[in-house]
Structure formats: C-alpha cells, structure tokens
C-alpha cells in the first residue's frame, strides 16, 4: 500500500499529491535549491516588459492577505495601474474583512459576491463529493478574476505564487510563469469535479455556476501570470511588508504554524483538516516545511511540531466557532465527520480511541 | 443502434489516485474516493478502476478499497490489478465489482468465464509500439476464444499523453472479434472519442481527460449525439 515517507530535507510527506521525490528529497526542496541559479534581475526585466505590453494595466486577484498585499504594493512600486479583484470567501471572517478594507486603501478594489445560498450548497456538495468544503472558493479564485478582466477590459492578471514552485509539483510544472486554462483545470483545486457537474443538483442552475466558470472570451486574450516567477517569493518577507502596510495577523488555529496566512475564510480549518486526512499533511506541516527549507527552523524541531500539532481538528478557526460555521451552511457535525471519514486515507491514518481522534499511523506506532 | 459507452478510468495505488505516462512516472493526483464519487454522481456508463500497485507489490486486489469505492455507487464498476485466481474474482465481485479485468493471468479466463459468466470478464490487451496490428488482432481473437466478454485495448505508448487513440489498431481489432472492444490510451478530447468510435470501438476509456480538463462524460455524450452516434445522456 502507499506508505507515507517524509522528505529527508523538510517534513513534507510523499503522500502529498503531485510531489515527486528524488533520492528521498521532495520536489519543493529541489526547486528551492535551484533558486540561487535563477537570474532574478533578468526575471524582473521580463516582468517590466510584460507590464509594458499591457500598457501597465494589471488586475490583481486578492484575498487581502500577506501575498496579495505584497503583490499590490510591488506592482504599484513598479508604476503599474493596479486594480484589485476579490472573490468572496465562503465564510468571510472579521479579520479577513478588515484586511480587504486595509488593502483597498492602496488601489481600486472590485469585490464579487456570488449567491451565498448557492455557495453554501456547493460547500456541502464539495465536501460530500470530493471531501473539499472549499471547492467553490478555489473555483471562484480561478474564475472570477478572468470574468472581471473581461468586464473591465484588462488583459493582464497577476496571481501570486506558482504553488508547484513553492510547495512541489510534477517535474517541469514548477517553472510555469503563466496560469493557463490547462493549469487552471489541472492545478486549480477542482479535484476532477467540474462546475457543470453541479447543474441540476439541489436546484442549482447553469446560471448559478457561471460564477465558477471562465466566460468565453470574444475580445483580447487575457494573460494570467504568477508574480512569484518574476520576483523571488518569500512568504515571511511578504508578511512583513503587508503588516507594515496595515495588515492584521492572527494564528487561526493551533494546527497552523504561521499567523499570517489563510485568515479570511472560517471554513479553511475544515479544508486543511480534510487535507491532513487525505494526504497526511496539514497546513502547519506545509508552512513549517517552507521554514525548514529557508533555514529558519531545524528539521528535527519541525518533526516535533508536526507530531504534536499537524492535523489537529479545528474547533475554532480565525475566531469563528466550528458550530457557527456549520450552521451557516446548514451542515450538521455528524454529516461533517461522516464526510471526512469517507475521504480519509486509512492506509496512513487511524482513529485513536476512545475519542476518535484521527492520527497518522506513522506517529501512533512510533516509540 | 447500441449506445456507445464512455468509461472513465481510475488508476489507484492504495487509496491514492495516480496518473502516469506510458504506464510509468506515476503522479499522485488525489484520493481515489474523490474520482469514484464524482463519476458515481455523474451516473457514468461504467467506471474502470485499475490497481497499478497490486502486481508490483506481489499482492492480490485491495478488497477494502473496492468496498469503500463501491459503497453507495450505483454504476457498473470494472476492477483490475492483481487478479490471479478465481478466488480473487469471486472476492472482487462480492466486494462490489460488476466486472473483473484480467491482465497478466489470462490463463484463468476460460475457467473464470465458465464460473462467473463472460459478461463479468474483461481481458486487458496491453500493447506497446513494437507489435503490428495483425498480432493484436490475433491476440484479441484468442482472448475471445478463451471466453472474455470484452477487450480493454490499451495502447501503452499513448497512456497519459493525450495524443489521440491508436485508431489503426482499433480499426484492425474491432472487426476481428465479436465481443466489445474498449479503446484506451491517448484520449485528449471528445473528437478523439468520435474518431475511435468511427474506427470501430464499442466504448472509449479515458483517464487524464477527466482528471485534468473541463471535459466531462456528459459533455462527451452530447458531442457524440450531435455527430450522429447513440450515447446515453
């Protein structure tokens, strides 16, 4: 069966999707090691030329968080005409609201809120069908900005990091500078579930799903790029820049290692816990692995952290109680746990009795 | 006219959904239950689940996995990987499989067909680029004579590449046998399926297409119908 092996340099497990290991080292570490050989000055030149080709007009998909704030401030500094577009999260938190408003002090912001009754259905169905409560949020993040670009006649979108570069991906994918429609379908968090699949379920219509699809483009082609492929990405630097610009931080749950990430959606804790059950790593493991690569913490210390905290079930997330979050989408705790169990990888996880806590076998049977 | 079938293929290693190229370089792309539940909700014609690790790990089929994936799933499921004995087939059918795909241990097909009925036996004909189509036609005829109910015609050198089906082999094998032939390997879109059906395939299997693109089995059926083929919507 597929055993869980950990990268010998960081603490990411081999069970993370699309993370090939070479000689025991994960693709994220291999990419990180190659960073010094990248000519970042040349990349910066490419970015300036890209902005020039689009008359300096750029639309920045944003959550108001650390990376978004860094993207906006960096592009403004380069002289770009920046418009921010924010697709509404599934359950916007108070701190998330505050950070969106903070960033709006720097550039014009367009916020798009879909029908939230439909969104709640998609949260429940996403959890039930693919074990991902955040399915509609991912779909919206990779659809709404394209549709707004059409409406506002923008031809350039600037996303933040290429997640394959930062966290690992199939060999070659880490070099992608452009977010293509194929990238969107393959890596955009759809998990093989397509917007058209929801039509007809619980009264969901094709019109309802338009918020989660990219409209056919009859005008100028829209290019979407990753800023992290032109300017070396550093989450901590981004957080420092963002905090200096007024962004607020909060450790959303003890299962997270960083206090400056994923603060805007109260459902994210459930998404991350489901990820832990499916793939053997939670948000904390992913974040602390970035810090191991950067030499901010030792691998041993990171392993100790992961052993204790990774995958902890979040009873509150970013200040929102679990039951309050579930009530908003009419999901019972029992149904939540049944859905989570269905998508748990029992090859690598087990339940500890008597409380039923799900833990990795790797640690349950370690001395 | 019999409806043409569209069959999503899931390759699994344990509970991990994987995808490779040319039966190699396996990428882990998610949890097997995700794809199984999506295709069940879609009500696809049929689902093919192949365990790529069973033979390599020297074990039989993962019956727990088949039970999990078939639980609450009301579509026909074909399961393959690690099938070596009649006992394996019996156990798989009891665990929730509707058909069993036999790859390496094809000597058990006659007995399996006798005991479980040929409708439950799919013979996998995996071939590389080195053998000509006459050889594959003869092998297909042999599998039919053994008692196979269907042939999964897998072009290994096209697997995962999304470069189109091997139309020449489909056109050679399909008329050589009277049992259904499932084209597999290379599908990059609805037009490839149309071409395979026109070449003589009775069903089209696709893995990467449904994992990596916005194309869906329903979209494929609609496309085929607009081109004059019978497909179930």
Can you describe this structure?
The complex is a heterodimer of chains A (367) and B (233). The model of chain A has no long low-confidence stretch (mean pLDDT 94). Chain A has helices spanning 27-34, 40-53, 66-77, 94-103, 116-130, 135-141, 144-152, 163-167, 181-187, 206-209, 235-244, 268-279, 283-293, 299-309, 322-328, 333-342, 361-364; strands at residues 21-22, 25-26, 57-61, 81-87, 108-112, 156-159, 223-226, 316-317, 320-321, 349-352, 357-360. Helix content of chain A is 43%, strand content 11%. Chain A starts with 20 loop residues before the first strand and ends with a helix. Chain A has 367 residues and is an alpha/beta fold. In chain A, a hairpin with a 4-residue loop joins strand 10 (349-352) and strand 11 (357-360). Chain A is built from 17 helices and eleven strands. In chain A, helix 13 packs antiparallel against helix 14. Chain B is 36% helix and 24% strand. The longest helix of chain B has 14 residues, at 133-146. An eight-stranded parallel barrel of chain B has the order 1-4-5-6-7-8-9-10, surrounded by six helices. The relative contact order of chain B is 0.15. Chain B is globular, with a radius of gyration of 16 Å. Chain B is of the alpha/beta class. The mean pLDDT of chain B is 95.
Short précis:
The complex is a heterodimer of chains A (367) and B (233). Chain A is of the alpha/beta class.
Mean pLDDT of chain A: 94
Strand content of chain A: 5-15%
Mean pLDDT of chain B: 95
Give the helix tally of chain A.
Answer: 17
The structural class of chain B is alpha/beta
- What characteristic shape of chain A results from the CA principal axes? globular
Q: What features would you highlight for this structure?
A:
heterodimer; A: 367 residues; alpha/beta; 3-stranded parallel β-sheet; two-stranded antiparallel sheet; 17 helices; 11 strands; B: 233 residues; 8-stranded parallel β-barrel; 9 helices; 10 strands; 36% helix; 24% strand
